[in-house]
From TrEMBL:
It holds the Pfam family NDK. ATP binds at residues 9, 57, 85, 91, 102, 112. Residues 1-138 form the Nucleoside diphosphate kinase-like domain. It catalyses: a 2'-deoxyribonucleoside 5'-diphosphate + ATP = a 2'-deoxyribonucleoside 5'-triphosphate + ADP; a ribonucleoside 5'-diphosphate + ATP = a ribonucleoside 5'-triphosphate + ADP. The active site is at 115 (pros-phosphohistidine intermediate). This is Nucleoside diphosphate kinase. NCBIfam families: PRK00668.1 (NF001908). GO terms for biological process: CTP biosynthetic process; GTP biosynthetic process; response to hydrogen peroxide; UTP biosynthetic process. The keyword Cell cycle does not apply.
């Protein structure tokens, strides 16, 4: 089953949105396979966003990610990478649809409260970086009520 890496950024944690965000993924029918609250080092944040290292906003992005604890998660389910991105909404909250997490709770691109992997391959890479111990080994008993 497909997995994705979801991270609630420091502003999402500070603003008390952890429960609300987890709730949306849970109610959708996805399964939580990893969860931790963690403040990361600069070098770790730079590694996570290494593909963006040439962008002019990279420095500010790294400062933001290390500014407080984040909630790192693994979520599992059918098409969870693409559907997770839909639940999160467009990168710039000014363009995120209402009903998405960023559309409902964020205003600026540099404070967009949540990260989600953009492809199955980047999810695999990000899960490996954030959860070297691997995902939790459990199966939800709701499975037959969510999948046919
Ligand atoms: P996403 O987080 O939607 O996958 P991304 O991977 O392109 O978006 O960029 C990572 C983060 O960097 C994004 O959540 C917010 C920030 N960012 C992206 N584009 C930006 C820009 N033009 N100005 C400022 N911050 C930006
Ligand atoms: Mg991205």
């Amino acid at each position: 089953m497909e997995q994705t890496f979801i991270m609630i950024k420091p502003d999402g944690v500070q603003r008390g949105l952890v429960g609300e965000i987890i709730c949306r993924f849970e109610k959708k029918g996805f399964t939580l396979k990893g969860l931790k609250l963690q403040t990361v080092e600069r070098s770790f944040a730079e590694k996570h966003y290494e593909d963006l290292s040439k962008k002019p906003f990279f420095g500010g992005l790294v400062e933001y990610i290390i500014s407080g604890p984040v909630v790192a998660m693994i979520w599992e389910g059918k098409n969870v990478v693409a559907t997770g991105r839909k639940i999160i909404g467009a990168t710039n909250p000014a363009e995120s649809a209402p009903g998405t997490i960023r559309g409902d709770y964020a205003v600026e691109i540099g404070r967009n409260i949540i990260h989600g992997s953009d492809a199955v391959e980047s999810a695999r890479k990000e899960i490996g970086l954030w959860f070297p111990e691997g995902p939790a080994n459990w199966q939800s008993s709701l499975h037959p009520w969510i999948y046919e």
